[in-house]
Each structure stands twice: as C-alpha cells, then as structure tokens.
Specification:
The complex is a heterodimer of chains A (about 400) and B (about 250). Chain A has about 400 residues and is mostly helical. Helices cover about 65% and strands about 5% of the residues of chain A. In chain A, helix 12 crosses helix 13. With about 250 residues, chain B is of the alpha/beta class. In chain B, about 40% of the residues lie in helices and about 25% in strands. Chain B is built from 10 helices and 10 strands. Chain B has a 6-stranded mixed beta sheet with strand order 6-7-8-3-9-10, sandwiched between helices. In chain B, strand 7, helix 7 and strand 8 form a beta-alpha-beta unit. Chain B is globular, with a radius of gyration of 19 Å. The chains are: A mainly alpha (about 400), B alpha/beta (about 250). The interface between A and B is medium-sized, with 28 and 39 residues.
Chain lengths: ~400, ~250
C-alpha cells in the first residue's frame, strides 16, 4: 500500500506520468465510448484510431532519431516502405509470380520481425557512409534516400509489382483471440484467429499492444547508457568522443532503431491493408511524421505520441469533414447563400474549404507553434533550451543595423 | 619511474602551417607534467594529437608501451587517457550527475539487449555508476549541485565538473587544458589541491597552463613549446633560468 502511495506521490506532478495515465485510460475506454455515441455503429471510428496507431509508432521511432540523437531525418518514410514491401514479399502470393516461382507465407509475427530487421539493416546501410555528415547535409542525404526508395519500388517491375504494387498480403493472425458481447457474440475463445475488416476492435487492441511494447522498449533505451550517449552526441559530439563515446556507432544505432520502428509499423500497415503500393510512402509521409514529433515535443515519448494523435486527427478527420460540417453550420445559421455555388465566382463554402484544406492545415500548425513553441508536451531539456534562448535574446546586446 | 606516455618526433601540419614541429618528450607515471608556451605555440594541437582528435602528420604516440598514434578519441579514452578542454565543453542540458554518468560510458558493459529489456545486470550497473558519480561529484565539491543543469553552474564549478567527467572514464593519464584559466587565486589553490588528490588516486596529470606560479608549484617537469618547437625541458627551476624560454616569453633583448 505504501509503495502505491509513494509511486503516486512521486509521479503526480510529472506531466509525462499523467500523460501516460491518460493515454492508457483513453485507450481502454475509447472503443466503448465511440460505440456508445454512435449507437453501436462506431466500428469505423475504432478502425480509424487503429490506423492512427501506425503514425504513433512512426512518431515514436522518429523521435529517437530526431529528438534523442538530434539527427534530422527527412526520408523516414523510406524505412516504412521497406518494412511494408518486405512483409509483402515474405507473406503473400507475390514471390510466386516472380522468377523465384514459389510463394512464401511466413507466419505473421515472424514476417513482422523480418520487416523490422530489414528496415533496421537499411538504416544502418544508409547511415554508415552518411552519418559523418552533420545537420543540414544529413537532412539532404536522407531526403534523397526518401525520394529514391519509392521510385525503386515503383520501377522494380515483377519484383515489387511495379506501379500497382502488391496485393493479397497475408492478414495478421494470432494463435487465438477473445470474443465477447462487444462484437455481438457470446464470450469465447477463437483459436487460430485471423484479423478481418469485420472485427476492427481486434486491430485496435493489437495496435495498442504494439504501441505499449514499443513505448516500454524505447523508454528503457532512453534511460540507459545508450540514451545518455544519444543526448551527449546531440549536445556536443567532441566532448562525447573525448568521454569515450563512439559517436559513429551511437548515431548508427539511433538511425537503425528509428528505422526498425518505422519498418515494424510499415509491415503492420501492409498486413492490415493487405496491399502495398509505392504511392503511399512519399515525402509527405516523412514530413507529416516529422511535424508530429516537433509539434508534440521533440525528445519526449508521450509528446511525440500526442503530436501524432493530434495531427492524425486534424489531417484525417477534421479537415476531410470540414466542408460538410461548415455547409451544415451555414444552413443552420440561415446563411444558405454561402452554400450556393455561383458558376462564375463563389464556389460554395464547402468547396472553398476543401480547396484550402492544406492552407488551413498549415495555419493550424503555425498557430500551435506560436502558442507552444516547445511542443505540446515538451521534454524538460527542450523547455530549458527555449527558456535560455529567450533569455539570451533579451540580454544580448542588440546588433547595430548597417 | 617508467614513462606512461611517450611522444616521439610528433609533427602536425595544416596545409603550409606547421603547428607542432618534431616534438619529443616522455611523461613519467605518477608525476605532474606541464606543457607551457606562449599563445599559438601548438600546445592544444599537441593535446589533440595525443587524444586522437588529430592524427599526427609524423611521429608516434605511445601510451603504456602501446602505439596509439591515430586512434580515434573514444579509443584513446578506452586506453586510459582522459582530457578536459580549454573552452569548457560540458553537456549543457544534462544534469551534473548525468554528465559524470556519461563519463562512465566507456567502462560500462551493458549491451543493447540489456538496455532494451532493463536486465538485472543493467540495473545494477546503472546503480553502481550513479553511486560512483556521486562520489566523484563529492570529490570535486559539487555534490550539492548534482541535479543542476551543467549550464546553470558557475564557471569554476563547470571546470571542476569537467574534471569529474574525465575522471569517470577511469583514466591512467589525465590531460588538463588550462584548468586554472579565469580562476581567482583562491580557486587556483583549491585546484592544485584537487590535482594532488587526483595524483594520490594513481592518475598521472599532464597539464597545459599559463599561470607560471601554478605551473612552477605544481609540476615536477616542464616542456616548453614555441612556434610548435620544443625549446626547453626540465625542472621548473631549470626552465625558469633557460635563456630561450625567457626570450620566447619576454622577447629577445636587443
């Protein structure tokens, strides 16, 4: 009892502990709440959240690279693509149509791990020659890598399915799964469970489970010898090297671990969609994930998760729904003329909003960064850095204008 | 006493500039050895050649009988050479104790696997290095400031924290680059006491210093560099009497 109280007292003022607690409680009650609010038809919202989990996973991984080790990676989606395509290769009919002529159907979990390791190896391979570069130069190389990988997959002809990509991937499976009234059945145990679109709650639960494992592992790394070395390399590479840190290895590990997380997410994504195509891994994905990390709070795991959740919601729910919402708002307010399209000018409010979707998105990002430059849930370090930067800007002698 | 560090014919050129020119000397185990010279004499360049930040253009560096010429910095650290920097290089946004804990990095044996799964071995090792870090902070008089960010410490505290971080690598040889720069006379006395404590722990000290009083009191032997060349070597008294040293510092009399 006293241990529980100690734990409570030492964490109740810790914003990260509170954030984790809210995440856990929110994740547990989310499905029942959306089902209740939608009268039992909230399945699509559960699936929506499960898809968002992919972005949360990627944000956690990119946070290792950008937030912990301070390496700007603009081609992060490439590892996501590599994870997806690896999964597609080892767990579908695809290899049967290649010159190998023999399809491979590895069990889901093994295929997932292979996707992860191949992505990690790709990260190490890219990192080995390029991690001697610093700052902007590294960003440019990773940007190039991020552009090249989808193009390679698009032009891989029979090996990667070319432009249409690969379909008919094996869906996730588990040795067994609980069913119950929440999907309209009696309590029971389904052996050799295969995930399908009729049971999105299962996807959701699996996603939460994967995120939880990832968070625990990354959190452990952050509070270890390696996590300290990442921080040191970010702060001062020379001093880190003088203190005995092999800076190249440490940066390579950050890169590979980030890539592994992305590859893992990619493999899961492929499995869930049962389909991969090079169209899904463009620069936009890399930048979106980076924005999630920066906006959520660089260097802080719950921050990156929150950033991912918030941006995912804005991008895939708020903005697509905005035209319809505004149209009904306009008619409810008696401003029907706003909805009327004029062939020569005003296209109607819904159309305007859907055309300006990304402008609105940009404005939201700018707004959040103005209100909270340190991110929604910043790390202690980031808070300090900004405070000092502000302080220095105020106390430094003003430069004379020419 | 056996030499712990032997520098033989080391030269370092940057393009046409000869920063260090054919310098040789030996540092004996258990002594305080000083490197002095006017500004731009090549002292820090020589330090960088010893610690692996530069590869000497010519010559060899031997540490404990092992050729370490061209080793990268983390390998010289592993071999047992620690250093501080002329312009303090701490991890500003890490706490004092984390700075020192990082210094243990090279002696830690936890692998990636241990870190990922927080194995009992990793937990024990973390606990041990935390305790040891507190001891080192106590040694340099910073125990009270263990949880302060390095950048929030006072200047003299930062210099001492850097020494604590260097000691955490468990060195046999400690290179101090102008450790007393910007110190008050009182702080200099304290620093010299700290150097004696470090010596008593069996660590050889090799320092660059500008303050002649500090150098003359603390060190047993001195090497003098000027324009990259070694112009004198000997005990403080010998060096003080050396005509070339006087000329280098005060200019040639007409």
């Amino acid at each position: 009892m006293s241990r529980v109280r100690d734990f409570w007292n030492s964490n109740r003022r810790n914003p990260n502990a509170i954030a984790y607690a809210i995440f856990i409680i929110g994740a547990i009650f989310y499905p029942s709440i959306v089902q209740f609010l939608n009268g039992g038809n909230g399945d699509y919202l559960v699936g929506f959240a499960a898809d968002g989990g992919i972005y949360i996973l990627m944000a956690i991984g990119l946070n290792v690279v950008v937030g912990f080790a301070g390496l700007l990676d603009l081609g992060y989606a490439a590892f996501f693509a590599i994870g997806s395509y690896t999964y597609a290769t080892v767990a579908s009919y695809h290899l049967g149509v290649t010159p190998i002529g023999h399809a491979l159907h590895l069990p889901f979990w093994i295929a997932l791990l292979i996707g992860m390791f191949v992505a990690a190896a790709a990260g190490a391979l890219l990192g080995a020659p390029t991690l001697r570069l610093r700052g902007d130069y590294l960003a440019i190389v990773t940007l190039g890598f991020g552009e090249i990988v989808p193009i390679v997959f698009r032009n891989g002809e029979v090996w990667t399915g070319g432009v249409p990509g690969i379909s008919g991937l094996d869906v996730p499976s588990l040795p067994g799964w609980f069913v119950g009234p929440w999907i309209g059945q009696d309590f029971g145990w389904v052996p050799d469970f295969r995930f399908n679109t009729g049971n999105l709650t299962a996807y959701y639960v699996l996603m939460c489970f994967l995120i939880a494992i990832t968070v625990v592992l990354v959190h452990n790394l952050y509070n270890s010898r390696l996590g300290r070395a990442w921080m040191a390399v970010r702060e001062d590479e020379t001093a880190a090297a003088a203190s005995g840190v092999n800076t190249v290895t440490v940066k390579l590990l950050a890169f590979s671990i980030g890539a592994a997380t992305s590859g893992f997410a990619g493999a899961f994504y492929g499995a869930k969609l049962s389909y991969v195509s090079s169209e899904n891994f463009g620069f936009v994905v890399s930048v979106t994930v980076l924005a999630m990390v920066v906006l959520g709070g660089m260097g802080n795991i719950p921050g990156a998760m929150l950033g991912a959740a918030v941006l995912y919601f804005i991008l895939f729910r708020l903005l697509p729904d905005a035209p319809a919402q505004l149209q009904s708002l306009a008619s409810a307010l008696g401003l029907d003329f706003l909805n009327k399209a004029d062939p020569n000018g005003w296209p109607g409010i819904g159309e305007v909003v859907s055309r300006l979707k990304y402008v609105i998105f940009g404005l939201i990002l700018v707004g959040i960064m103005l209100l909270r430059p340190q991110g929604l849930l910043p790390s202690q370090v980031r808070k300090q850095e900004l405070k000092h930067a502000e302080h220095e800007a105020l106390t430094a002698p003003r430069q004379l204008q020419g | 006493m056996a030499p712990i560090l032997r520098v033989e014919g080391v030269s370092k050129r940057f393009g046409g500039l000869v920063a260090v020119d054919n310098v040789s000397f030996e540092v004996n185990e258990g002594e305080v050895f000083a490197l002095i010279g006017p500004n731009g004499a090549g002292k820090t360049t020589l330090f960088n050649c010893v610690t692996g930040f530069y590869t000497p253009t010519l010559g060899t560096v031997t540490f404990q009988g092992r050729d370490i010429t061209g080793f990268p910095p983390h390998r010289t650290a592993k071999a047992g050479i620690a250093r501080t920097f002329q312009n303090i290089r701490l991890f500003d946004y890490m706490t004092a104790v984390d700075n020192v804990r990082l210094g243990h990095h090279v002696r830690m044996r936890s692998r990636l696997w241990d870190s990922l799964f927080k194995t009992p071995f990793e937990r024990r090792e973390e606990r041990e290095i935390t305790e040891h870090s507190m001891e080192l902070l106590d040694l340099v008089g910073l125990k009270r400031h263990a949880d302060s960010y390095a950048r929030n410490l006072a200047y003299g505290q930062q210099r001492r924290l850097e020494i604590a971080r260097a000691l955490a690598t468990d060195p046999k040889l400690l290179l101090l680059d102008e450790p007393a720069a910007g110190f008050t006379p009182q702080e200099k006395v304290e620093l010299m006491q700290l150097v004696q404590v470090i010596l008593a722990r069996g660590i050889t000290v090799f320092l660059i210093e500008h303050d002649m009083r500090v150098v003359m009191q603390a060190s047993k032997r001195i090497v003098v560099l000027d324009h990259g060349e070694k112009i004198a070597e000997g005990t403080p008294a010998e060096v003080r009497a050396n005509q070339r040293v006087i000329e280098a510092y005060l200019g040639k009399s007409a």
